[in-house]
Amino acid sequence: MLEGPQPQLADLRLLIVDDNPTNCRILTLQTRKWGMVPRDTREAAQALEWLRAGESFDLAILDMQMPGMDGLMLASEIRKLPGRATMPLVLLASIGVHSDHPDFARASIAGCLTKPIKPAQLQETLLRAMSKSRPVVRQAAVATTKLDPTFASRFPLRVLLCDDNIVNQKVASRLLQQMGYRADLAANGLEALAALDRQPYDLVFMDVMMPEMGGLETTRIVRERQQQPSQFPNYQLSIKIVAMTASAMQGDREKCLEAGMDDYVAKPVRLEDVRAIMERWAPLAGKARAAEPAVAATQIPPTANPPTQANPPDAPPEEAPVDISRLLDFTDGDPASLRELATLYLDQTSQQLAQLEAAVRADTAQEVRRLAHSCAGASATCGMRRLVLLLRELEREGFEGKLTNAKQLSRQASEEFDRIRLFLEAYLAEHSPLAAKT
Predict the structure, then answer these.
(1) C-beta neighbour count of 248 within 10 angstroms
(2) Which of 6, 111, 236, 375 could form a disulfide with 34 if both were Cys (CB 3.0 to 4.6 A apart)?
(3) Percent of the chain whose predicted confidence (pLDDT) is above 70
């Protein structure tokens, strides 16, 4: 379906900037199939020269990591050119990246693509960038927007989810539940190793930054124990480990792979990310136990009549402090689950912001960094975009050891959190089962 011309993309002029000639070629060939008119270069300076000369482009794909001038730097330069302030810009990265980072907002990035480039992902991103809204879902593709509740029955696996943030645990667990899995939980690397000592697992989602023992060290220990089967019988060679991290720095993916991880997914974890990971690794992770009965896997049966998804609030999306559609996706539209997740988020974030304010007053940069990182991760997962921007700035100041604007940022974060609390409380009150009956 993706091979032929795509009417919504046909005749659009596309600028491709990537220092890798193979990527340029792949993008050029694929977009030409859709009727687009691509022009590529390996040099950021050449792209700027074309634009300054008045060459017209409808949108651009910029490689995130290029020598001299990276994708974000190039995007910033493009925004300075006359008439280029609103041209859709898409970033191409070798690791999972999401557009809730402050630098993305400043450059008005319309979307992100992850290497290796997939036609469906490319098409969806380009359509979204051009429409400046959610991509149009064709009737034939509606089924792919949800997770398959029978997936676990086809690929019975033991799944371990390791993350110190309880909100992230809850969200990831619910996404896996929608595929029929009931994941066991661990809050750090030590707990993950203890879980593996108790029983074997086929697939492990491993947070990278955790207290006591992080994901990289834990993974190295798992890989070492796999070489000692007589002493560690539960550490099967087929265990697949998927990194989860909110960081998107250059070299992160390489560090994860070097530690022995099989794949990498960026936070906030999204429905489509979980589906892609499970489709990629479930068949391989389950091969070692293919002969075992399906009852060996921890599964939950699919719901015969899934709850109807509630309608989002009438307030314009740009005014809402919460992307409520993300929470509805995570909870499958179930009011009780939504209330549980929202309450959990509000309680945890309230405590973290109080601790963050105290750390700012005490001028402890590393504690500010740690708390802001954790709080931003849960907030990004739940769709609190403006709060995430403030927390990322606090995290950056903590990392640099210079809390120049920390007091102001902390105060603004608390004010934004108050807006989030009021919004969620009003939404829950309006869409509760009791409110629906009155």
Answers:
(1) 19
(2) 6
(3) 80
